[in-house]
Known about the structure:
Layout: H1 2-15, E1 20-24, H2 27-37, H3 48-51, E2 60-65, E3 71-77, E4 81-88, H4 95-104, H5 112-120, H6 127-142, E5 150-155, H7 166-189, H8 193-207, H9 216-237, H10 242-257, H11 262-283, H12 290-301, H13 309-316, H14 320-331, H15 335-351, H16 358-364, H17 370-381, H18 385-405
Parallel strand pairs: 2-5
Antiparallel strand pairs: 1-4, 2-3, 3-4
Helix pairs in contact: 1-6, 4-5, 7-8, 7-9, 8-11, 9-10, 9-11, 10-11, 12-13, 13-14
Amino acid sequence: MQSAFENARDYVEVLLNVPARLVENSKSALQSCLAELLPLYQTEAFSVEALHVASFDEKKVYLLKDQFHVCFIIVKCPGEKLAVFGPYIHTTPDSAFCQQAMDENHISATQLASLSLFYNRLPVCRHSALISAARIFISHLYGETRREFEVVEIAYAKKQTFVAEENSSNMRQLEQRYELENAFLMEVENGNSEEAIRIYRRLQSEVSNLKRASDPVRNRKNLTIILNTLLRKCVERAKVHPFHIDTISTNFAHFIEHANSIAQLNELEFKMTETYVRLIQRYTLREYSPIVRKAMNYIIINLSSELRLSDIARASGVSPNYLSALFNQETGDSVSAYINQKRISKAAELLENRSTQIQEIAFYVGFSDLNYFTRVFRTIKGMPPGEYRKKCIEKQYTVGRDDLGTL
């Protein structure tokens, strides 16, 4: 059951941006879960006494919503467990939506800002999307893939009041946002793109109410610029040289300013996260000492030039003998072996481009002798450059043909 829930959670949280929890089927466990998910919501609509979850049946999808249009989906699982998806609202909380909720519940106009703030912290999701996810979850639990599991809708209309604890709520909201930011940056710095993206989806809902500009697109651009800056600093902390960061950061700044919609910016934000994570995975040098890091960065930046141990040592601030010994101690390779590995790695990238001649690639990565380049390439890659390029082209063709077959 755990694996089935994890699959459902990944879909619901990553693609639909809705929280998902697996809790014990008990009053105290459910009460704690709902209190955690709705910390700012002072209402009894989802109290354990009102839910009567003990009477819920397995193999049914329960859609619960209250008079404020806040929704949960609950599925009763084997082993006295409950899968809780939510909270969410089914439509964008614009001013008309907030006004309707205020009118229906006789809320004072003085609480409009608090109610709007509350709604903007909730994910927006269509009922049908979450119901489909819940049905798939049930089918995986019981192996009944062809059955349409019944949806039971429970609406609460008990008269209540919305109470916003302005100061403490805002403080807690700030704390949560900073906690999520730190968790997000930590996952990026550790090169964990999946978890970073999961946390960023949660962070998006936290910052969605930060409207610092009247134009929604301009407002989102400002937030995306902040994200680009945070990611850039995060990559720096992972000991990636600015040489690798600057062009990417500048390009993203250009893309942000030329985006025309929130959808484009949303896609760009996830692209930025993935790109910066890959940058760390590829270029992080944090496991090495500052001296070895300086040497490695000098090599990468000057890969096309003649690289002499004396020049590398001078740039690193030590003698050639000391650098050679320290480099071998920390990497297990000699400086010259590391240079060849980096040159051949770059050459392998360039060989994927059909138009560049092999001789040009050899010169570009610092080999003046084509025959020597070929020997080194064969030693490291197990085949000559021409054969490597041929395999890359065949692979690209196979992937493209497979893609066409799915159309």
